[in-house]
């Protein structure tokens, strides 16, 4: 019989930063322990320290592990996952696993083709420590059948004690026939049992799972309500009901319905499941992590994201290369990047007075505080992500300098780009900070500031957030990442002129006015 | 190329009583007319008059049809559906279709095995009138392959001009291999093009649709956001994106995303899509209409419904048959069935006075008004659906007579059933009213009243509803249905003693007190 590895806490954690209330975890464990088709419960990641907040089920303190083991006794086996790319050495692996001996049965490694050899070493060490081991080969939709065989051959040679090889459809992009074929190839190449982990972007998680089963996979991943990264997973309630129906296995539907109801409440808050952008990411075989980030930020509308996904070659530069003009024609001694925070209003007098004294331009990453700077005899440069410039219409102001990015989802009208006060930012303006699909507003402002005057860049109104919500979490992380990478790469560090919760050097605007930029 | 028939207005109408705002319909039509893979837009049902409220897209006034035809011009073909069981004669068909000539291209008939021959006659007449015709063979999960061939053979013989034969997975219960097989059988048996209409109970609508396409189906039904009866359909946005990706057909994703967003707002209100009960109904091959009704009524919790679905043989009668006791031991001249409405409180003095004068028992279909009747020296009989009797605990009252039904989702404890004041209602107590999966409370009360005294049954507190909501819509329809069927089948009609919005004869309680039951 095919059995299930339920990884609700591990894969679902992507939505809650791996925080789950104890009550719901207890109910979940009780329900899982009574479902006959569940063989493993995967309770989270075990991870080295990361530079951001991640909860209990991302790090799994040993007391949590012991509590869960005691609670479910030995009714089920317990599994944890380790991201191969985060676990950089054998010593780190020993550190992560040694206190789990006797409590955890199975250790699974998420393996990408890039870190495959390293994963084999980790698998061998994990076996030496007495655990069962699974190698979860990610991105199988991108790996041709010959390479699948080659990876399996390498596992047979390099880590022959591996207990399970999982084929993971990371992009939710596989079709049933393709899954069958790949599972069969894997089974022909080794005697190691095969598992399958699907995603539901194009609503084929269940169809692909039963296809993998037909082809001989013996263990399949699922999560309650399909809770999981991006479009989510095969739902445990469907697969349990399916096995129950097929094998005439009695299950307690009342308990199952109860836990489904509890996770549905969380689903109503976070909203996993597929949607048009996820469908397209699956059909076009694009990574859903990026989609998830873009959707959560709510900066771009669904259409913009679809446009990006669908128009593989983005082109916003004007057709006529002669009309291209660079921002290096602008000449200022300092730049102050203006965010959307309230501290701008509190310090407006100081900011305006500083600008007038020191040939400083204001570069607005947000439009929120622009009004404070209008008609004040200062230079205002405004960053417009997306196609806002197209929509400006009567709000177009010849006294403002507009910036657009060549990395954005929407094409801007050629005639607008040719206007004398419109400039296009490109990656060349700021090396080392080009990993974003679209340029975030702070990065756009920073690109302009760096090109204009790389040694004196100030920030104002990047206050940070009092309360963390799903939407502002990504914005905060993104801004901090931009600040950190900039400061790491360039000699002159960024300085905030207003109070901020970001990790950044702060100086008082009044100190600069009195003592000058260098000595302020 | 496989083409799409989008039936959002027709199949989605089950959730909105076929009411859609004009603005959203206009947007929908504009979007559909620009998607190259859409061949037909099915704009609703054309139906003979029904005894309940059903909206514009259930009846399709000819002005609506003309408006839509003008709006989409001839960019797409238009389809309507007729329920074969509702269209009882050729004359009725002519009446329904004659004004559609020139505006509608395709007429589809929903056909069950029970009315198959009639459907062939309707199909022939429809062809005579100049329309294209599709026969939509429902419940294919329940029809074995031999019978599929036999139905197709009969179409080839009896209605050879049929333009499409659709295989409809009404229960959302088919698997991809099964769909492939059935489509192939249909194609081998005739040259008539085959279509497929899936439901998403077990999340196989997409997998089954592409399986049908692989087997040779040329037209597939879908709806925006999968809006459709019960667990819903294949979503148009997924299937369009799939075809776009596969055939490199450019589509306007922005428009598609916009209409998806608008229907998602309606989805958030009505909540179609699958859930554990729908999944089980699909896996167990049970009709989802009944599930949808039970869920909407909110009378039974999800667990109760699952229990019913899963325990195929319901057994609530006591193990020891000797302890079974019939309600015929009770002896009253009249019965008054008490509902949950406010008119009970307004008329309480009259009701109590009537009961004391005339040897009348009160049978409470609802517990809402019970308090008004306690300690008043009258006999109170209380109907308890579900397993409320198990939970009564300290509220158990030896002065009350409790009734439970043998058609209910939960087993009641044997020891409780043996109590002298607990009676079990069975179908024998009231013939002709046994089509309900579970006995509704009014039906329970009516069963008891009929057995006690079939000639003098009164109602009080069945007020009806001021505002129609999704939840009370089913309750209202159910109560009216019970009243109608009872009155049709039995000589002594039901009489309401309090004002009511139901269609039922009303007499004043005070008239009965003064003039007696016969002359009152």
Task: Describe what this molecule looks like in 3D.
- The structure is a homodimer of 520-residue chains.
- The first copy, chain A, has 520 residues and is an alpha/beta fold.
- Chain A has two domains: 3-290, TIM Barrel, CATH 3.20.20; 321-519, no CATH class.
- Helices cover 42% and strands 15% of the residues of chain A.
- Chain A has 21 helices and 16 strands.
- The model of chain A has no long low-confidence stretch (mean pLDDT 88).
Helix content of chain A: 40-55%
Strand content of chain A: 5-15%
Globally, the shape of chain A reads elongated
CATH class of the largest domain in chain A: Alpha Beta
Rg of chain A over CA atoms, rounded to whole Å, is 27 Å
The main sheet of chain A orders its strands as 1-2-3-4-5-6-7-8
Quaternary structure of the protein: homodimer
Low-confidence spans of chain A: pLDDT under 50, at least 5 residues? none
CATH architecture of the largest domain in chain A: Alpha-Beta Barrel
Number of helices of chain A: 21
Key terms:
42% helix; TIM Barrel; Aldolase_TIM (chains A, B); PYR_CT (chains A, B); 2 domains; 2-isopropylmalate synthase activity (chains A, B); alpha/beta; Pyruvate carboxyltransferase domain-containing protein (chains A, B); 8-stranded parallel barrel; homodimer; 8-stranded parallel sheet; 520 residues; 2-IPM_HCS-like (chains A, B)
What would you say about this model in short?
The structure is a homodimer of 520-residue chains. Helices cover 42% and strands 15% of the residues of chain A. Chain A has 520 residues and is α/β, with parallel strands linked by helices.
């Amino acid at each position: 019989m095919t059995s299930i590895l339920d990884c609700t806490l591990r894969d679902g954690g992507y939505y809650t930063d791996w925080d789950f209330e104890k009550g719901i975890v207890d109910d979940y464990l009780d329900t899982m322990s009574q479902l006959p088709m569940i063989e493993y419960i995967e309770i989270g990641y075990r991870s080295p320290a990361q530079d951001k907040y991640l909860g209990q089920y991302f790090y799994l303190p040993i007391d949590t592990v012991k509590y869960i083991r005691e609670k479910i006794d030995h009714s089920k086996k317990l599994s944890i996952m380790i991201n191969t790319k985060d676990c950089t050495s054998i010593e780190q692996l020993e550190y992560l696993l040694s206190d789990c001996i006797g409590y955890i049965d199975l250790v699974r490694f998420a393996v990408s083709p890039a870190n495959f050899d390293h994963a084999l070493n980790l698998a061998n060490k994990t076996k030496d420590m007495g655990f069962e081991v699974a190698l979860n080969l990610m991105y199988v939709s991108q790996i041709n059948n010959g390479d699948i065989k080659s990876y399996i051959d390498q596992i047979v040679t390099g880590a022959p004690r591996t207990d399970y090889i999982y084929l993971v459809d990371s992009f939710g992009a596989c079709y049933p026939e393709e899954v069958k074929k790949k599972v069969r190839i894997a089974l022909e190449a080794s005697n190691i049992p095969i598992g399958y982990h699907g995603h539901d972007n194009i609503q084929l998680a269940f169809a692909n799972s039963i296809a993998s089963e037909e082809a001989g996979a013996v263990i399949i991943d699922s999560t309650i309500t399909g809770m999981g990264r991006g479009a989510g997973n095969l739902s445990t309630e469907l697969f349990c009901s399916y096995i129950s129906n097929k094998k005439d296995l009695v299950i307690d539907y009342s308990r199952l319905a109860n836990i489904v109801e509890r996770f549905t409440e969380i689903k109503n808050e976070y909203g996993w499941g597929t949607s048009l952008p996820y469908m397209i990411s699956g059909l076009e075989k694009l990574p859903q992590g990026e989609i998830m980030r873009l959707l959560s930020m709510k900066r771009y509308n669904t259409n913009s994201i679809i446009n990006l996904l669908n128009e593989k070659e983005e082109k916003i530069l004007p057709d006529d290369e002669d009309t291209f003009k660079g921002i290096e024609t602008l000449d200022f001694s300092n730049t102050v990047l203006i965010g959307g925070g309230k501290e701008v209003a509190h310090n407006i007098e100081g900011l305006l007075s500083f600008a007038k004294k020191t040939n400083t331009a204001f570069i607005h990453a947000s439009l929120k505080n622009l009004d404070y700077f209008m008609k004040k005899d200062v230079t205002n440069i405004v960053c417009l992500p997306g196609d806002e410039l197209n929509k400006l219409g009567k709000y177009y102001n010849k006294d403002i300098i507009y910036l657009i990015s060549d990395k954005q989802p929407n094409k801007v009208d050629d005639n607008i780009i040719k206007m004398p006060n419109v400039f296009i930012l490109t990656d060349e303006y700021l090396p080392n900070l080009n990993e974003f699909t679209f340029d975030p507003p702070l990065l756009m402002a920073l690109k302009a500031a760096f090109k204009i005057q790389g040694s004196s860049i100030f920030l104002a109104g990047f206050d940070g957030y009092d309360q963390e919500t799903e939407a502002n979490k990504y914005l905060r992380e993104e801004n901090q990442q931009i600040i950190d990478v900039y400061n790491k790469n360039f000699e002159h560090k960024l300085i905030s002129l207003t109070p901020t919760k970001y990790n950044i050097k702060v100086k008082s605007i009044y100190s600069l006015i009195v003592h000058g930029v260098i000595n302020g």
